[in-house]
Amino acid sequence: MNPDILSDIPLSYRKTVPVLLPYPFKEPFDYIIPHDLKVKKIIPGTLVIVPLNQRKEIGVVWQDHVLSGNLSLSLTPTPKKEKRKLKEIISILPIQPLPRVLMQFIDWMANYNFTESGSVLAMAIRNIRTLTVPLKKEYGWIKTSLLPTNLKITEKRKKILDYMNIPNQAYTTRELTENLHIKPSVIYGLEKSGGIFKQPLTNFTQFSKPDPNFHQPSLSEEQTKATIFLRKQVDKKKFSVTLLQGITGSGKTEVYMQAIASCIEQNKQVLVLLPEIALSAQWTNRFYKRFGVNPALWHSDLGLKHRKQTWMAILKNEVFVLVGARSALFLPFYDLGLIIVDEEHESSFKQEEGVIYNARDMAIVRAKLSSCPIILVSATPSMETLINAHQGKYFHLTLTKRHGGAIMPRTELVDMKIHPPEKGHFLSPPLIKATQEKLDKNEQVLFFLNRRGYAPLTLCRACGYRLECPHCSAWLVEHRSTRKLVCHHCDYSIPVPLECPHCNTKNSLVPIGPGIERITEEARITFPDAKILVMSSDCLNSPKMTAEAVRQIMQKEVNLIIGTQIVAKGWHFPDLTLVGVIDADLGLTGADLRAAEKTLQLLHQVGGRAGRARFPGTVIIQSFLTDHPVMETLIKGDFNQFMIEEAHERKAGFWPPYGRLAAIIVSADTNQDALETAQELGLNAPSRDGVIVLGPAPAPLSLLRNRYRQRLLLRTHKSIAIQPILHQWLDPIKPKKNVKITVDIDPISFL
Ligand code: ADP
Ligand code: ZN
């Protein structure tokens, strides 16, 4: 037991403490500290096991009030009458209590996002539910950094060595045998010959201290300036927000690594949030080159054991730098010195299910509570961030030059009305020509289309019937690789039918429009010699597979990459010199407030993959809307100007970033029930100055997983706090059991 937490208690005392449980409870419950625990005082944050409805649960001794100054609970005797109903704490977990800032953060986050503190706590301690079970010792394999010169490299050994492409990373026997289809004996043989060595998995090398001077890059003048500023922020140990904006390939990562170095020098912890776990492999490699060790990782793809170890190491303050997905925000950091949100504009920072929250915004809150600086990094910042920087609320650093003299890619628009592809095809003659030229020069080309599968719609030529999901208001998307029609919202799928389900005509179903599988098919015919790699979430569903794809690109085993939005993120592929955007108009059609902004960011980011090193890059954009402002901006490259003008148009109507939004989604088993509650909400809508309620109206996805959906939108002036209004409005509404009201604060999706 930790002596700091527990000390003897006179047996005459019986006291209670509030314990928050990781379930949708707004408040903690009181539990009695039993005599036999022999404690006088339990510090808030202590993890305890308590009974809850016949089960044993891990809970956390909570604080009385969100931001109360004195967090150590004084234990007053429990009033007599309550005593009988209350249950006793079963035991205390022998680990450090959660840090106070984490508890403050959980309460704040629950309050802001209109959810229960218990639900947020669940995200924070989800991985330790089974913490009491001791961890079995396990071994992993690490590649020897200098392979013995006499090492015989057989085909199978090469497979292993290629696979272990993250330096100092331990790979388990099981992972290697399963993924590479080899026998364990091959691994043992390789160990004997000195190609790999064994290491206990509990001593994760990623928890060892990074060396801030392991490899110092020489920085350009503007990089140096930015670095000095950021290091200063870290040294101040105070809350501040800095937007680090720089064109793609300008060395933003290089620069913020310097701020990380400062933090390591001060023995403080660093949290780096990435929008996509797929990116973590390349990031880890870079970190290793800069600091000589791996960072700790945090994402849903890690095994439970790995996660538990990481969680514990953070609690014990043994982790220096952790890079992770949005859920890393809830880790029990004791001593954060810096938070970085890379690609801060990415909508994947928004969690849309369960507890709905925006990790970018919550990271700012976490930094504030931890009194540490936060750096928001992007080539194409979100409108909120950009406006805050322009208004002087955030510091704003800009990097204008690409590293090593690389120049920004040239962007060309192909007007699809003037240069139509062949009938039934999607690649225009100018794009085909440019692609062939690059392939001939042994450079790499990327085709981007933000649509998975083969075709987004399947239609009957005879009767016009469209194949829809029976559970959602959405079309079924053909996936030719699996010969299925799939709903991208609920994963319902059927084999592609041979006849129309409606009129029974045989062979009448035709695919309409392209997905990346269809583009791949066309590319195979058009460029028969190209070595093609497809990158979408369908084929790259783990960081390991992504790392393998990255390796193939880096080692030039492929020269034509065809991908969805997964390729738009912060990749650095030096020999990629042409990006072809297959359908630039795709995101502009919906009635989404942010359609233009999002499309511009996405296309700008994808284009930014071109020409990042020795050779200049070109971006070819296929569009039918060539005079759309988004296309004009892509040609001119004046991103900030576009955003500021776009923001200006929103000012009068106090749309974000000049106002606040909350979406209210009513869902139910029947349309009638959803409508009834939505109408009741509409009738009771708050009315006062600076507050507007739009709706109810059927959601664009009016049926989702068999639930009927209605939407309302609350919009207020920025000066008005939205949460109290919501409470006043929603708390009295008592809908039928099957009806659910979901609140989405600062929504970015309007489906
Ligand atoms: P960004 O994050 O702005 O897209 P990166 O940090 O990925 O840019 O930099 C692009 C490339 O240039 C990377 O390969 C990076 O290692 C390299 N680079 C940038 N700045 C330097 C520097 N000062 N010294 C060495 N390499 C650099
Ligand atoms: Zn569906």
Give me some keywords for this one.
single chain, 751 residues, alpha/beta, seven-stranded parallel sheet, six-stranded mixed sheet, 20 helices, 29% helix, globular, disordered N terminus, binds adenosine-5'-diphosphate, binds zinc ion
Q: What is the strand and helix layout of this fold?
A:
Elements lengths: L14 E6 L8 E5 L13 E6 L2 E7 L18 H4 L3 E2 L2 E2 L7 H13 L4 H9 L13 E5 L11 H9 L9 H8 L3 H9 L3 E5 L20 H16 L3 E7 L5 H14 L3 E5 L6 H12 L4 E3 L5 H12 L5 E4 L11 E7 L7 E2 L5 E2 H11 L3 E6 L4 H8 L4 E5 L10 E6 L13 H12 L3 E5 L8 E4 L16 E3 L4 E3 L6 E3 L13 E4 L3 H11 L5 E4 L7 H12 L5 E4 L12 E6 L13 H13 L10 E6 L5 H8 L2 H13 L7 E10 L2 H13 L7 E14 L2 E11 L4 H9 L9 E6 L6
Parallel strand pairs: 2-5, 9-16, 9-17, 10-12, 10-13, 11-12, 13-16, 18-28, 19-26, 19-27, 25-26, 27-28
Antiparallel strand pairs: 1-2, 1-4, 3-4, 3-6, 7-8, 14-15, 20-24, 21-22, 22-23, 29-31, 29-32, 30-31
Helix pairs in contact: 2-3, 2-11, 7-8, 16-17
Bound molecules: adenosine-5'-diphosphate (ADP) and zinc ion (ZN).
The site of adenosine-5'-diphosphate (ADP) has 16 residues, from helix 8.
Shape: globular
Strand content: 15-25%
**Fraction of helical residues:** 25-40%
- The strand line-up of the biggest sheet is 11-12-10-13-16-9-17
Q: Could you tell me how far the N terminus lies from the C terminus, measured between alpha carbons in angstroms?
A: 50 Å
Could you describe the largest sheet, including whether it forms a barrel?
A: 7 strands, parallel
Query: What's the mean pLDDT score?
Result: 88
The tally of beta strands, per DSSP, is 32
- Content-based structural category: alpha/beta
Cα radius of gyration in angstroms: 28 Å
Low-confidence stretches: 1-14, 65-83
Number of helices: 20
Molecules bound to protein: adenosine-5'-diphosphate, zinc ion
